[in-house]
């Protein structure tokens, strides 16, 4: 009977040690994943910032092109602007 209790005690002790080791491993793995998530979040923000910058640059280019086109319209149509109501308003 004493041997049975001793074996049982040893098994419980081993199970507790194993659970403690598993808990430590899980904590280390969680820390690793948390670090990866932070890295991914930072990369995401960098990509978004670059995309915003590119979009703002393209927006400025489009506005500049539109303004250049608008400036050419009166020069091209000149005295015929009255034929196009939108142009007649700007040429007077």
Class by SSE composition:
mainly alpha
Largest sheet: none
Task: Output mean pLDDT.
Answer: 87
Helix content: over 70%
Q: Measure the end-to-end span.
A: 113 Å
Please explain how this structure is put together.
By secondary structure, the protein is mainly α. It contains 2 helices and no strands. The chain has helices at 2-77, 85-91. The protein is rod-shaped. The termini are far apart. The mean pLDDT is 87.
Provide the descriptors you would attach to this structure in a database record:
92 residues, rod-shaped
Task: Summarize the helices and strands and which ones pair or pack.
Elements lengths: L1 H76 L7 H7 L1
Q: What's a quick, concise take on this entry?
A:
The chain is an all-alpha fold and 92 residues long. The protein contains 2 helices and no strands. It has helices spanning 2-77, 85-91.
């Amino acid at each position: 009977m004493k041997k049975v209790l001793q074996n049982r005690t040893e098994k419980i002790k081993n199970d507790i040690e194993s659970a403690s080791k598993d808990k430590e491993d899980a904590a280390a793995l969680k820390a690793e994943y948390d670090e990866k998530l932070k890295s991914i979040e930072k990369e995401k923000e960098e990509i978004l910032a670059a995309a915003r910058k590119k979009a703002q640059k393209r927006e400025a280019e489009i506005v500049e092109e539109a303004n250049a086109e608008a400036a050419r319209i009166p020069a091209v149509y000149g005295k015929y602007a009255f034929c196009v109501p939108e142009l007649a308003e700007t040429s007077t």
